[in-house]
Design goal:
The chain is mainly alpha-helical. It has one domain. The protein has nine helices and no strands.
């Protein structure tokens, strides 16, 4: 793989990760309400989900989903339901103070798992890997060495993008000093998550 091809891929992948979607919302919300460490753990979960998305795409699962519209529709509805559930929980939390930070393993797993599940709730992410990777892969060169460069690059950029969102959320935290502000923040984030759920379930319809 040439340096130009790698740079082009890195730039494209970075830009694809910038729009604010469910992953960004849950990372910012977690960081703002539970601390930067929790936000970074959420970003880690999203990155692990990215590894699964990429693996599914490269092993043919993504092609299967794109070839069987009903399967993709079912997964989208399930993912939308999960996002809506998170949004409703955020709305109902409505400004209540969070529990004191805990360094326990269950707490760590909770943040990582949430990041993974939110990211995995969008099966169309698999199709993104299917669409972008072929653009830069050289069909005349061995595939494995190219994937050994592209795959870690993609995951590194995913983590970097959501680390930025976690840092932004941590900066917002000092604005949530009152119950009223926390209430508006939680309900705003909850509304965005429900909106993302609706957008996911109706996407791709004619």
């Amino acid at each position: 793989m040439t340096l130009d091809a790698w740079v082009s891929f890195a730039i494209l992948w970075f830009l694809l990760g910038l729009p604010v979607g469910p992953n960004a919302i849950v990372t910012m919300t977690t960081s703002a309400r539970d601390g930067l460490r929790a936000g970074l753990l959420t970003a880690t979960g999203i990155t692990l989900a990215g590894a699964l998305h990429g693996t599914f795409a490269l092993t043919g699962v993504g092609a299967l989903l794109s070839a069987v519209p009903d399967a993709l529709t079912i997964l989208k509805w399930l993912g939308g339901a999960y996002l809506a559930l998170i949004g409703i929980r955020l709305w109902r939390r409505g400004g209540r103070p969070v529990d004191p930070p805990s360094g326990s393993t269950p707490r760590i797993r909770s943040h990582v798992a949430r990041g993974m599940l939110v990211s995995l709730s969008n099966p169309q992410a698999i199709l993104t890997y299917l669409a972008v990777f072929p653009i830069v892969i050289n069909a005349n060169a061995p595939l494995a060495p190219q994937l050994m460069v592209l795959f870690p690059t993609a995951l590194g950029i995913v983590f970097a993008n959501y680390t930025m969102y976690a840092l932004f959320g941590a900066q917002v935290a000092h604005l949530l000093s009152s119950a009223r502000r926390r209430c508006w923040f939680d309900r705003g984030a909850g509304g965005l998550m429900v909106g993302s759920a609706v957008a996911l379930t109706i996407s791709g319809r004619s």
